[in-house]
Amino acid sequence: MDGVLIDSNPLHRKAWAEYTRRQGVEMTEAMQRRMYGKRNDEIIRDFLGEHLDEGEVFAHGAAKEALYREMMKPQIEAALVPGVREFLERHRDMAMGLATNAERANVEFVLDAAGLGAFFRVIVDGHQVVNPKPHPEIYLTVAEALGAAPGECVVFEDSYAGVEAGVAAGMRVIGVTTTHEDLAGISLSIRDFTDPALETWLSSETEKA
Length: 209
Hints:
This protein is mostly helical. It has two domains: 9-75, DNA polymerase, domain 1 (Orthogonal Bundle); 78-208, HAD superfamily/HAD-like (Rossmann fold). It has ten helices and five strands. The strands form two sheets. Strands 3-4-5 form a three-stranded parallel sheet, sandwiched between helices. It has a two-stranded parallel sheet with strand order 1-2.
């Protein structure tokens, strides 16, 4: 979701910086880079300390995401990755699922506010699996729910952890370069969903099948 449906990582960076500042921790660029593609419990323990118990981790994560949603709400339409709504509409007859390490409240916020929820037959967030990305569990869970074999699936990812998860699941991965330009192991790199290479690649893969 983040970095694929919505170019939210710049605002997540600002929200994390503001939230950790309130906790007495000044964000560094190295910390910011580490958070991409991670689940909130991992990020909180990295940024605020391994000593935190489960309840404290959950509370910090919820508070940070509430801050993010407050910041994102006025600009969510402008933050959508270019062409994503039109792409989903063109392919709405295909079985599409959403696999994200994001908090469920953020998933509902983005899909409801942007009106994208109806496109996805299956939605799995990071707290519905034991192992978050880069482990392949979340992608395998979505594929099973869609009734699709991993080799039949195409994953769209912007993060290193996400690409690693998709490849480990035995799926082809299209890299969306909203976050990183140097995504290894992908089958195709696109800047966004208006990239003409996307439909050409999908057509060629469909013909092979």
